[in-house]
Each structure stands twice: as C-alpha cells, then as structure tokens.
Amino acid sequence: MSQYDVVVIGAGPGGYVAAIRAAQLGFKTACVDAGVNKAGDAPALGGTCLNVGCIPSKALLQSSEHVHAALHDFGAHGITVSAVHFDAAKMIERKDQIVTKLTGGIKFLFQKNKVDSLFGRGSFVGKNGDFWQIQVDNKGEKSTIEAKHIIVATGSSPRQLPALVDIDNEIVLDNEGALNLTSVPAKLGVIGSGVIGLEMGSVWKRVGSEVTILEAAPTFMAAADQQIAKEAFKYFTKEQGLDIKLGVKIKQINRAKNSVTVEYEVNGESFSDTYDKLIIAIGRVPNTDGLNAEGVGLNKDERGFIVVDEDCRTNLPNVWAIGDVVRGPMLAHKASDEGVAVAERIAGQKPHLDFNCIPWVIYTDPEIAWVGQTEEQLQAAGIEYKKGTSGFGANGRALGMGKAKGTVKILSCAKTDRVLGVHMIGPMVSELVAEAVMAMEFKASSEDIARIVHAHPSLSEVVHEAALAVDKRALHG
Fold this sequence. Notes:
Number of domains: 3
Structural class: alpha/beta
CATH superfamily of the largest domain: FAD/NAD(P)-binding domain
Shape: globular
CATH class of the largest domain: Alpha Beta
Radius of gyration: 24 Å
Number of strands: 22
Oligomer: single chain
CATH architecture of the largest domain: 3-Layer(bba) Sandwich
Helix content: 25-40%
Largest sheet: 7 strands, mixed
Strand content: 25-35%
Number of helices: 14
C-alpha cells in the first residue's frame, strides 16, 4: 500500500495547485482525480474550470467578440468586410484545443514537481494509526492508499431542476452543454442571470441567437454594486438586445424532440416561450457525495458543504477542505489560494487569505469586476464612506479601442480614506481590478492610488481618476 504525506482529492484549480505546492514544500504527494476528456477516453486534469468552465467559456467569448466586431465595428476603423462567415463548429474546435493544451500542462507540472497523479474517484475508508486511508476507484478497479494529511478539493456541479426538467445536454443544457453547441440556436433560453447565464447568453447572442434570460430574483446582479449593475443592465438589454426578465417564477418546462417550452409568471402575468435550446444556470452545488464523509464522521452542513474553520481545517484531524466544497465564493482563484495556504499550513507556515480582497469578474462585454464591499453593504452596516467615480467615455485608450463605455467607482472610509471597495464595468476591467486588490491587501487609501503615476494613455487612468474624484479633485471629469 502506497503511503504519502499529503493526498489531494480532486485536480481542479484548488486541488492541483494544492498538490504542487505541497510537493514544492517537500511532502510526498498524490492527487486523485476522476476527470476525463471531452471524448471520455482519457483522463483530464483541471476540473470544471479548465475542462467545462472558466477557460473554455473565455475562449468562446473571445471568438464571439471577433464575430461581433467584424459584423458591427470594423467599419468605424475603415475596414470593409464583404462577407462574414461564422463556423460554430470551428469555434468549438479552437476552444477544445485550448482546453487540451492546458489540461496537458497540469500533467507536465505534476511530473515536474513529482506529484503522483492517480486516476479514479477518491473516498475515505478510515484511519490506520496516524494515516488516513483513501480508496481510489478507477471504473471499478479499486486500490487503497494512505496519507497523513488529506485535502478535499472535489469542486462543484451545476444545480439541477429535477422537479421541472432533466438536463440532457442536447436540448436542455448545463454549462458543459452550452460550451459544446456546434450550431447557432435561433432562439436560446437561459434560466439564471449569474456569471454562467450572462456569459453564455452573451456568446450566443453575438453570433446570432435571439436570447431570453429568465431570472427569479427581482434585482439584477444583486451581489454587485447596484450602480454598476444598473449600468450593465442598460448595456445588455438596450444596446445588445438581451431580453432579461426579472422576478420570474418558472411554472413548467416541457421538452419536445427539437425544442423546449417554458411556462412562467412575471408579476402575476403568465407567459409561454419556446426555445431551440435552454441553458439551466441557477448556481452550483458542492461535490461531497461519494466521499464516505458520513462513514468517517466528516461534518457537512445542511447544504452539503464541508464544515471548516477559517484555516480550512475540518472536524477531523489532518483533514482539510478547500474551494467549492467549503464556505465562501465559488471562484477558481479562491480555491487555488486556499490550496496554497493549506499546503503551507501543513508545513507549519502561517499564510493569510482575506475573503474581502478576492476579486469577482464577469467576462461580458463590457466586463464587470469588483473587490471589497458595495455601496449597499456599507450603507446597511452604517459605515461612513466617500466615493469617487470616473468613466471610460473620455479615456483616450478606450476611445482608440472603440470600447469607451463603463465606469470605475472607488469607495473609501470617510475617516481614514482606506479603500473599502472598488467596482468597475468597462473594457479589460478583469485586468484593472488587480490594482484595486493590491491596494486593499496593503490597506491603501484612495489618496495612495491617486498619488501613483499611471501610464498615459492607458485604461488604468480611469482608476486613477476615480481615486482623485474621491476627494473631489478629478482632473479630467
């Protein structure tokens, strides 16, 4: 029986990073994962993020942006395109090539760092002295390994609507099905206006679908700062033509051979829409079934999340859990940083992870990003604050890119000027938000950002201008 210092269950962005960091710290490490490639004939590391989530969705978003630019934006640059032909299957093929390259990259990193990669589903067996025993089930072929420390990083799966319809990834799709359409549906329905719903809706709208998004909540993007959310809603609906309905109550879903009909209510009024494809994007649930958690007494809460403390320790000695299976935002970068932190804690180090400084990004066009508290949260907590805003409309770089839409908003403490939150909508704000994260991690003030020289012309000047505006000394607005 093989023995290890650390065994990680799951090779997503939390698990594989945790395994690599543990190996770097000198621990004999193995990572157990049952992921397979799109064809289903070979192992594929990387979890949901690399295979059917973050990475492939961004590839499709980029492709669809090029299509939209060719159809609508090139003329302003003096470029005339006589005909634009879009090949959805080719777009999917390109996406698959990127996925294959990156999942293969993890395999290389495991080899480089001497991490043993074990294919199969990992579950707890019990304890043998100081060692936890883990069963690895490779399609019925079972083996057992032992480790002093276990890191559970099994990720999450799409939330289903079993009472209404089953996901078949032919007509009714989850995120995986939405990433593998090889033709453009004439009418696409999306249930849920979260990250997945907005991003996938944007992709297929740009390449020709008529897209309707049905959202149960009465407020659009309730987790975001509402000034930014309202601006986003205007862009998505009035300018891009997404039909976003809020306060929707789904009554019935009927799947036919080549279509699906959704019956729903809005403010008591009944509607019935028929779509060629329907994406279910109503959130995700933790993958904790099959771990034999109950058999070894591993605590889970009522929603199925593994219970951990602030350091990701479970109730069992030397058993840790990270990423989507524990509390906190279901974000790949949060999982990765937790994985690094746990490996370092096992080594006796004392890393720190501040959830308030974890950035959020939605890769629509324009992009949306934020870190820290929203204006609504500050108001609810009774915290006195100052705010400064600046737009991309007069930014030279944004105008040159043809992307001069959006806003940067900085919130700081009224007494200390310490930055409390930064919220953005605009071009490449997924990159610009890193400056805000850095500022908040180092407890910077808005004046600190305002005193930093920002390159000209650059998009980052809008962040600089927003910081100046906090103290009512904006120079260009």
